[in-house]
């Protein structure tokens, strides 16, 4: 289990900003084995700073990072897979050569690094590009190589900063499948993303960070259940004025009228709707992660 507890970080200020900038203000969360954790927030919220502290790239002013119940150390981080926001590939090195090289850096033997590289090239759809220089690849294929570099040594934890940024849907699916396979093998996965629909689809749990603070966290289902739902009623060919006096808003879509409301007597609304016309839909809809995010950071 990876535990991040009360991380705080302030960056020194420059001229005109003597107090500096508070990047993290008590960030805490836990990621369990086989759990995919989505880390979401606006630019500058603190996601990348948190990941860099976990990987030892930055040092926190206070707080702790623990792995398997003990303080996280250098040897532990060697067994982690990390995909930084600023991609770190050697542009003139060939694809397969590069992945093998990083495998060797993580302690794999030459045969083991080659086998792991071949497996990943096939899994990520890069076999035909194995001999190409990285600089000759599209952005999407460079992303796949970067993920392969993070996966080549069979890491115990995966930490990925915006891994899906700029990818087409096919590349997104390839990367998502690779991550889900690692999760099923018991690997904790943390990734940040601005694509909230993707986070909602893939993640077991989510942390929403704003101005260096965790403003909401939990499973997607729990976060949605904590918010009041919206009653949505769709009536086809309704009598004019059927919703007059009811709370909420009514929109028109062809021969249908749609009532959205967060209040009122749902049984009275249903009776009015049934009397007015053919009710095609009547139910409470929980908010999406995008709506929860907007509410949490407002």
TrEMBL record:
GO CC entries: plasma membrane
Any Gene Ontology biological process: response to antibiotic
Record organism: [Actinomadura] parvosata subsp. kistnae
Pfam families, alphabetized: ABC_tran (PF00005), DrrA1-3_C (PF13732)
Domain ABC transporter: start-end pairs: 2-236
Keywords in alphabetical order: Antibiotic resistance, ATP-binding, Nucleotide-binding, Transport
Record localization: Cell membrane
An annotated Gene Ontology molecular function: ATP hydrolysis activity
KW ATP-binding (keyword) present: yes
Signal peptide start and end residues: none
Family from the record: Belongs to the ABC transporter superfamily.
Name this protein carries in UniProt: ABC transporter ATP-binding protein
Membrane topology: Peripheral membrane protein
InterPro entries in the record: AAA+_ATPase, ABC_transporter-like_ATP-bd, ABC_transporter-like_CS, ABC_transporter_ATP-binding, DrrA1/2-like_C, P-loop_NTPase
Record carries keyword Transport: yes
């Amino acid at each position: 289990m990876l535990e991040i507890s009360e991380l705080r970080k302030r960056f020194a200020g420059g001229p005109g900003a003597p107090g500096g900038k508070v990047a993290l203000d008590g960030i805490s969360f836990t990621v369990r084995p086989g759990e995919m954790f989505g880390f979401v927030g606006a630019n500058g919220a603190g996601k990348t700073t948190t990941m860099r502290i976990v990987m030892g790239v930055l040092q926190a002013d206070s707080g702790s990072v623990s792995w398997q119940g003990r303080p996280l150390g250098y040897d532990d981080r060697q067994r982690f897979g990390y995909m930084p926001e600023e991609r770190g590939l050697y542009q003139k090195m060939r694809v397969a050569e590069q992945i093998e090289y990083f495998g060797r850096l993580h302690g794999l033997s030459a045969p083991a690094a080659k086998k792991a590289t071949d497996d990943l090239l096939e899994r990520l759809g890069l076999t035909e590009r194995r001999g190409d220089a990285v600089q000759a690849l599209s952005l999407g294929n460079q992303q796949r190589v970067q993920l392969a570099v993070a996966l080549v040594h069979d890491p115990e934890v995966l930490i990925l900063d915006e891994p899906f940024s700029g990818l087409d849907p096919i590349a997104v699916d390839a990367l998502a499948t690779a991550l889900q396979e690692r999760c099923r093998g018991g690997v904790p996965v943390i990734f940040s993303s601005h694509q909230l629909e993707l986070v909602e689809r893939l993640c077991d749990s989510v942390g929403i960070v704003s101005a260096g603070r965790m403003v909401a966290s939990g499973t997607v289902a729990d976060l949605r259940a904590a918010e009041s739902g919206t009653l949505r009623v769709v009536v086809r060919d309704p009598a004019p004025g059927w919703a007059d006096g009811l709370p909420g808003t009514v929109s028109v879509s062809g021969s249908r009228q749609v009532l959205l409301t967060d209040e009122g007597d749902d049984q009275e609304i249903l009776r009015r709707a049934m009397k007015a016309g053919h009710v095609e839909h009547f139910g409470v809809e929980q908010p999406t992660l995008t709506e929860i995010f907007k509410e949490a950071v407002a």
